[in-house]
Each structure stands twice: as structure tokens, then as C-alpha cells.
């Protein structure tokens, strides 16, 4: 079974402790652990700093990137944190609206057999998270994206329910955080 994981640095496996932006080892990253399960072919389409594609050109490029990995049984999309970090006036509803616009096009063009929308882990106070707004809005994001998934008729999981540990920056998953996301994804995917 092929699973495409489309996301940001927490999908790519960014290790914030590294000096030059290295990845955690494959056996630490949540998608690397999924790939180690028998019968799974997991494609890591995570990119550091990625926000939800929100212009025709970015949506087209994202669809082309995902399309190169097809066919696949499942498309997993976990994005939204960078949208909050990069848009000072954004709230959870804005992120959900952006996600819905992107997914409406992607689902129409790519027609994946199954899509799992995952709300990213909520931020915590840390080196990258000094504003209370970021913590509050990232905590609210799960409910907003759950509604988006309902409207689109796709599956949903909220990483907040897996209580993943974050690193000192308040954004990126720690090794234990990757383990928690792996277990949550495994259950959400039924593998």
C-alpha cells in the first residue's frame, strides 16, 4: 500500500537541534517508521517551511508534486502551522479556509482513493513561539480542520490528541514526538 505524506518540516523530519537543518534518522521520523511497516510504501513529500498552497501557481505545483507519486491508496496532508507563523493576522478559521481551497482543487485533479487530513501538533511556548496567539490559534486549528474534512467528505485526525512532545522551539517534533505521531498515524490509517 502506497501512502503519500504531504506536509512541512514535521513531515520531512527536521531536527531543530542540528546546526544546518538536518533530518532525524529515518527510524526516528514518523513517516520513516511507517515505511518500516510490512507492506507499506511511504513517500515523504515534506518540505521545510511549507505552508498550505494558496495561489494558482502553488496549488498547481503541489498537485504536480503529489501527482508524480501516484498511484497511491492514501494521501496524508498535515499542514497549517507555517501559515500561522508567517501570517501575523491569521486565525484558525483562515488556515482552514486556505486548506479547503487547496484540497478542493487537489481532490478534483488527483482523485486519491483516500485522503487523511491531519491537524498539526499545537504549538507551545518556545524559541519560535513567543506570542500567545500562536498557541491559542494552533490549539483551535483541530476543530476548524475537522469541519473542513467533514465538508469535503475526507478522513480526519487531530495530532493534538496524540500529545506529541515538541522541541525547545515550540514547533518541531522531538524524537518522542515523532514516536507519538507515528502511533497516532498508524491508528488513523488502520495499519
UniProtKB/TrEMBL annotation:
Protein name listed in UniProt: SGNH hydrolase-type esterase domain-containing protein
Pfam families named among the record's database cross-references: Lipase_GDSL_2
Species annotation: Candidatus Scatomorpha intestinigallinarum
Residues in SGNH hydrolase-type esterase domain copies: 5-180
Alphabetized Gene3D superfamilies for the sequence: SGNH hydrolase (3.40.50.1110)
